[in-house]
Amino acid sequence: MTNKNQTTQLVLVEKEKETLKESRYRFFQIDFLKTVMIFLVIFDHVVSWGVKNEIGVSLWERICIPVFLVIMGFNMGVSFQRKGDLTLKELYSWSYFKSKILRYIVPFLVLYGFSTLIGLIIYQFNITAMWYGQYYPEHGFIQLFTGILPFWGPGNWFIPVIFGSILLFPLVYWAFTKKPILTIVLCFAVEIALQLTVFFVIGQVTSWEESHLLSLFMTSFPFYLSAIGIGLWLSFNRKPFSKRNIFIWVLFPLSLTYIIAYQFFAFRFRIGGVSLIRGDYNFLVFPYSAVLVILAMMIVPRKSDGKLSRAISLISKSTYHILLTQMLGYGLVSALRGTHYLIGPGFTFLEALYLIFGWIIFTSFGIVWYKIDQEKNLSRRLLFYVNFFLVYVILVFYMYNSIRFNPPFLEWVPMPFMFILIYGCACLIISFVMKKPIRLTTLVLWTSFLVYTFFVTILYVAILPPTVFIIPMLSIAAYLNFVVIGTVLDYALRK
Question: How many CA atoms does the CB half-sphere of 477 hold within 13 Å?
């Protein structure tokens, strides 16, 4: 018994040491920035360009991705510094790849599977209709190999950039520790070289095949390497006005001038009518974003322990899952409405609610998904995935579809879907908000009921005539009785 207590105490001490070590390298300024930027990403994907062009978004809203890229370089630099002086082989360790696979690739694969299934249901299991109905011809077959979902959602292009960073960042970091100045120069040089390659090899885009090839370049990690390099540079010296960081301040006015000219005067570098620099995010924009990061490091405290601060830090940890969640949500909206830009010129107050809904739904469900991925029991995690996606899809469908009606929120919703929403939300709240674990057998019973109800309702709505409504309802009621009895027995027999 004594040995067991000693072992437990040792584990607790080691966990406390690890927590203290992690807090030493955690920056609330970065958490704050990531939280603000993910809210701007949601804004960017619901507000149309007819509105954004009038409010100078390049200076304050379109900087969300450039800031994320700078933060990516910063965070990965800090992460590797925690491990000390490592060789290139040690940087490319299995523990490194395992952590990245679990953090980024597994959630994406989960999304890939569920989003494809949901897309097939929406398009009545017609793969061709799903392919042509979503984003074709603006995405092509080649992009399936870079992480573009078959059931597409806005922001999907950033996933290949993240995957590329997993493969290439250790090499960049290793080079930086040997020759920092040369490495930062090469980061800019590689990005400029890729822009020139696009200009000379592709030139004027005249076909969808060329558009897909251009997209292949623009979804690659090296295409944004200067931002990563600046973030890495800052991770080694965070003093805003140190001599080492002077070059960022020198580049800042040039970057700001370019953004103003780009936004307000439609300035573009063109030769023979062909753009020399592609995309809104490039080496001319990143110094401006880097200064915003520096200013946040100056103004926002490094550590903050209030309730609001903890909420901000939780959102920061969940930003990847929030990105995936809004991809699926806006992808669903795009499939149903023909566009994910739902706030256009002359928008009404009710239409403005689309943005509020997006912030609330995508952020809260993204956090829940992040917490689901912390579940150690694989069986429970898989069951929670099913609960999460079915509840989320129905909720997004209802919220973003019913607001069009007058009065809003009075659109007919199949009663079984309401059961799913009530049960699913209760399940997720009990498990991840109230933190009261549900028994595995009970979770299996209710998840099977959720799945059965969902597909029976889809069958009724899409295929069966209204005259046979009573049959699916009776089967659902019978299944519900079975689940309730099973739950009572599960809890009674274990006491």
Answer: 7
Residue 446 identity (one-letter amino acid): W
Mean pLDDT calculated for residue range 352-357? 89
**Residue 18: which pLDDT band, with cuts at 50, 70 and 90?**
very low
Query: In 373-414, where does DSSP find H-type helix?
Result: 378-402
- Residue 270 backbone dihedrals phi, psi, to 5 degrees: -130, 145
Burial 153-179 (b: 16+ CB within 10 A, else e): bbbbbbbbbbbbbbeebbebbbbbbee
> Could you tell me the CA-to-CA distances from 239 to 24, 73, 181 in Å, in that order?
17, 17, 17
Q: Give per-residue pLDDT as tens, 450-471.
A: 888 887 777 766 665 555 666 6
Facing residues of 274 across strands? 271
How far is C-alpha 412 from the chain's CA centre?
31
Alpha-carbon gap, residue 477 to 470, rounded angstroms: 10
Q: CA-to-CA distance for 440 and 375, rounded, in angstroms?
A: 13
DSSP lists the bridge partners of residue 333 as none
Residue type at 246? I
Q: What is the pTM of this model?
A: 0.89
How many whole angstroms separate alpha carbon 32 and alpha carbon 214?
A: 34
User: At what angle are helices 225-236 and 286-299 packed, to 10 degrees?
Assistant: 30
In Å, how far are 104, 133, 271 from 373, measured between CA atoms?
11, 31, 49
Report DSSP state, residue 145: G
CB-CB contact of 88 with 174 (8 Å) = yes
* Residue 492: count of CB within 10 angstroms of its CB: 8
Burial code (b: 16+ CB inside 10 Å, e: under 16) for 199-212 equals: beebeebeeeeebb
Determine the Cα–Cα distance for residues 18 and 351; give it in Å rounded to an integer: 47
Find tokens 């009724």 and name the residue.
460
Q: Could you say which DSSP state residue 271 is in? A: E
> pLDDT tens for residues 309-349?
999 999 999 999 999 999 999 988 888 888 889 899 988 88
CB-CB contact of 73 with 228 (8 Å): yes
Residue 334: which of 280, 385, 401, 268 has the closest Cα?
401
